[in-house]
Amino acid sequence: MSAIISASILSADFTKLGEEIKRIIAAGSDWIHFDVMDGSFVDNISYGSPVLKSVKNCTGAPFDVHLMVVNPEKHIETFAKAGADNITFHLEAADNPAELIDKIHALGVSAGVSVKPKTPVEKVFELCPKADMILVMTVEPGYGGQGFISETLEKISALRRFCDENGYDIHIEVDGGIDANTAKLVKNAGADVLVSGSYLFKAENAEEAVESLKF
Ligand code: DX5
Ligand code: ZN
């Protein structure tokens, strides 16, 4: 089975964001990954709901929103209204993650929970019956273009094993440093949704780049 490719527009050319989104979807990407950084949960600041609202109708592809923010509960409604199809928040930033998943679902949006590279993956196990997706970060969140942290592979395998053993049919997403080589490693470990930013947007041939991640 081929992986779902979620293209991170953090590495797109912002002077023509709408065209970049259309280009990367036409090249075969399945979802658009929308990284929200608040300068507090992570050092960097990216973009927020007004940008999502303005690019939402560029494509029929789902928008996969990754909230790297403190107090994620404060922002879910705004992002749902702006057009998010999935909202992923960080376990490290949530006071009551189980309740937050319910609140995201009540907004008619699918819910993901993310863990940073140093957070043990076992901490999300109890959320697997509720969540639609677990995002295992394969770099420290905050910037595009970083190197893949190979120690995260064991976390992906452990999560895949846990889901299979318990019959939890949820997505396992990975984010950070994904290219043709690391894509093979994470898929072997059990990931089925691959976020990729710089590798896809800087590629000379986007179609070939997407293909190299999917298969
Ligand atoms: C990092 C972001 C990623 C980033 C990935 O904090 O969550 O989505 O855009 O970029 P690449 O694929 O360049 O590592
Ligand atoms: Zn991301």
Describe the structure.
The protein has an eight-stranded parallel beta barrel with strand order 1-2-3-4-5-6-7-8, surrounded by five helices. Helices cover 33% and strands 20% of the residues. The protein is built from eight helices and eight strands, in the order βαβαβαβαββαβαβαα. The mean pLDDT is 98. The radius of gyration is 16 Å and the shape is globular. β7 (171-175), α6 (180-189) and β8 (193-196) form a beta-alpha-beta unit. α5 (152-166) runs parallel beside α6 (180-189). With 215 residues, the chain is of the alpha/beta class. The protein has a single domain (4-214), classed as Alpha-Beta Barrel (TIM Barrel), CATH 3.20.20.70. The structure holds D-xylitol-5-phosphate and zinc ion (ZN).
In short:
By secondary structure, the chain is α/β, with parallel strands linked by helices.
Helix content: 25-40%
- Class by alpha and beta content: alpha/beta
Output the helix-strand order. Answer: EHEHEHEHEEHEHEHH
Write down how many β-strands occur, each being a DSSP E stretch of 2 or more residues: 8
Low-pLDDT segments, ≥5 res: none
Please indicate the percent range of residues in DSSP E strands (runs of 2 or more): 15-25%
What general outline do the C-alpha atoms trace?
Answer: globular
* Biggest sheet details: 8 strands, parallel, barrel
Strands side by side in the biggest sheet: 1-2-3-4-5-6-7-8
